Model the fold of this input.
Amino acid sequence: MAILEHGAIEAASLASSTADTTADWISAVCSLLGAIVALLTLITVCFASDQILTRHRLGLSKQCLGTWKSVVVLPSALRMQTRIMTPTISVSLLVAKRWQPKISSSAGFGRESKGTNGDLEASGTVLVQASWVNFLEGLGMSPENGKDFYRMRYESESVNGIVPVRWKGRDLAAICSILGFQSIESKPNNRKLMELPTQWSGPLGWLQFRHGSGGCIVEYRRRSVTKDQLPREFHSYYQDLGVESRPFKFKSRLWQSITGMCLSDNEVISFSDTSGWAEKMGDCGGNTEQSANTDYGARTECVGELAGEIKREMFDRKANRPQGLRAKDFEDGMSQVSPQHTCSISGLLRNPGSDMRAMEGNSKKTVVLCPSPGHLSVAIEGELVDSRGLGNDGTHEYSYIYTDEDGVGKVYKHKLGCLRMDTDLLALMKKAVLQIEPDGFYFSPSGLLNFQVSQIWSHASSISERLLDQKCIFSRTRNTSYAMLTIGDLLLISKASVSLRGLIGHNGMDLVWAILASPELFSHLDDCIACTQMQDLLDSTLTCESGRFDFTQMKYSDQEARQAPGEIEVELVGDSAFEGIQIVAAFVDVFLNFFWIDRGWITDIALYDITMPQSVTMC
Done:
């Protein structure tokens, strides 16, 4: 028995030892597997962290931020933390600081700008990755020369590995409107929210809007830099001459994009479509949203009564007074310049069929500009004026009425193209028209203002269409396909304008106005210049007394040109004697301005001021 008991004890001890060994082995294997998993996890985390850090470092590198790295990335004193700050831009601040941007094409990273003759991307130069850097560089804004025009704010996160800049929607819309950007929407308006995704296009490039996790995201893509379109000898001539281009008219362009014309730095003519405006006012009583505001309704009623009085005065109380044109018809009709006008690329791309039909149907209509004090207080333009910091400017408010020629009263006897106006507005228009001059970038008016300005230059347009002399580079370029002028070309046009204005002189600006205001004077000077030797022209003198031009001292090389039309009367021209050089320079200046205006980009971006997202992230 003792032997049996001893064997059982040894067997139990052996079994227990075997079980302990198995448990230890399993524990060791599990520990090894845990260590391997931990090591793999550590390696994965290290690689992921390295990728995140690499992406973060790239987002803060000079390749991504360019010259803005010095102000965006700010290490702390102990180098333990990096503070990220980005610029914010306010249009009202730019207006207050009298900003004068220098528009240019974005230069690539690591290379200095070679001018406008080379394609930077084709030569292997890569733009910085942050599109907002390229956008601000295109505006001529940099940390070195623009410290007074932006404010820095802390930025806590990146978008796609890029430190973003955050815009107020209305500020971005205002900036893009003066740069000639256009929406891909056929009929943008202020009653419909901006739809995403969408795209704006302009002379500098494209802005592409899309949804993001944090709201609306926009990216900028610039156009490739092309060669100058105007002859190289022109560029060389003005470079050797040492003439500087005219400063960029920032404030004037802000007004032009919302159908305003500057008379001076603080005085403006503001125009409104009275037909669409009156329709909105008439619908006010039936609109529950608008009728909730009784004060607004009261103002509307007063404005309606005022409009009625204006119509009765303007149309001499005729029973068959024309009704205001519907907003849609007005927009279609106003989109063209005149029956002779060559459609611009923006018009052809937008809706060529409807524009041509509207042009044919409305070519015999007349636009009457009548006073409409207070329209900025009830029209959308008033909101745009305030958001752009233009509220302190003195405004002369006028509205359009679109009617037949025989329905215009005697009060509105003055005519510029198909525009009819009274004497007071004519005096204001003279000041405003002479302020429209090339400033180194494309002319970028609203659609309504483009129609108005084109009417003023309409007789220059008709003459330009008939020019067949292939030696006239401006006319040849205009009558062929739409030339995409470079920034260098636009600066050249501005330099030429500055040079011509120097020859014209202060008193010669009256002659420029007379050429624009009187098609008869324009036509006679055109015949005279075409048929007269240059030396005879320079020896001529054109006198004006009491607004009447006398051609008796003009010299003619051709007998047909000697048949002077007698005296031609033009309003608002003082007594003066214009020398031959002033005559030639003034005539060329009119055509140069027409060439610049005709190359313009009609902008509709201002309409998004209140319909686009309040905050937009540009990365």
In short: Residues 232-598 form one domain. The chain has two domains: 63-229+605-618, 232-598. Confidence is low (pLDDT under 50) at residues 109-124, 276-307, 309-363, 473-483.
